[in-house]
Amino acid sequence: MTDLRALVTHRARVARRGAGQALHATLLVLAPVVRRAPAIVVGLGLVLSTLAVLVLVGAARNDAAITADRGVAVGEVLEGSDAQHTFIRYTAADGAVLTPDTGVLYPRGLEPGNYVLVEYDRDKPELVRVAGRNWTAGLLPVALGVAGVWVVLGPLAWWLARRRRPRPGVAPDATTPPDAAPDEADPRPDEDAEREPVGAAGAPR
């Protein structure tokens, strides 16, 4: 019974030491990422903000192309529209009946069956927008989206930066595996080691 308990204790100690070493190795691998976590979060916010701005830039370019060679027609809003696209059918100046695969630009408030005045690029009639609307219609949604991104990521980056600061009087040793050093430096003999009876060495022969 004593030998079994000693074996279980020894194996538990080995398992704990192995787990500590594995955890230490994982922390060493993740340490560069953890140190740069605030910068990563800020970088993510910048990327998302840049993408939002690029959406406005693309819309402005489309508007410029339509304005440069503008055609005007009456379009019918079709069934089958979704959150990404509002499909219309209109007749171009050359008599072609068109249904742009990308939908109409700035479709806010349109419903199937509506008739609406549209403007399109004569050179590229697939590029069409609701008349009287332009890229400025997206300013408010984009601004709110960017603000929402920084409301979430800004405090997160600040919190991560605060956690990186060392606490006064605390100097953790990142090179010592948890639970490994105490076991390796433990001066106590193993519990299953044979003990010599007290007084055996000095007993008279």
Walkthrough of the structure:
This protein has 205 residues and is of the alpha+beta class. Helix content is 47%, strand content 12%. A hairpin with a 5-residue loop joins strand 2 (88-91) and strand 3.
In short:
By secondary structure, this protein is an alpha+beta fold. It is 47% helix and 12% strand.
Keywords:
205 residues, alpha+beta, 5-stranded antiparallel beta sheet, 4 helices, 5 strands, disordered C terminus
Return Rg in Å: 36 Å
Continuous helix count: 4
- Helices and strands, in order, run as HHEEEEEHH
Shape: elongated
Return the average pLDDT rounded to an integer: 78
* Percent of sequence in beta strands: 5-15%
Helicity, as a percent range: 40-55%
Q: Biggest sheet: strands side by side, in what order?
A: 3-2-1-4-5
Q: Report the biggest beta sheet as strand number plus sense, adding barrel if it closes.
A: 5 strands, antiparallel
Please mark out the parts with pLDDT under 50 across 5 or more consecutive residues, or reply none. Answer: 173-187, 199-205
N- to C-terminal distance: 34 Å
Q: Structural class of the helix and strand makeup?
A: alpha+beta
**What is the number of strand segments?**
5
Describe the SSE topology:
Blueprint: H1 2-35, H2 37-68, E1 70-77, E2 88-91, E3 97-98, E4 115-121, E5 128-130, H3 139-164, H4 180-184
Antiparallel strand pairs: 1-2, 1-4, 2-3, 4-5
Helix pairs in contact: 2-3
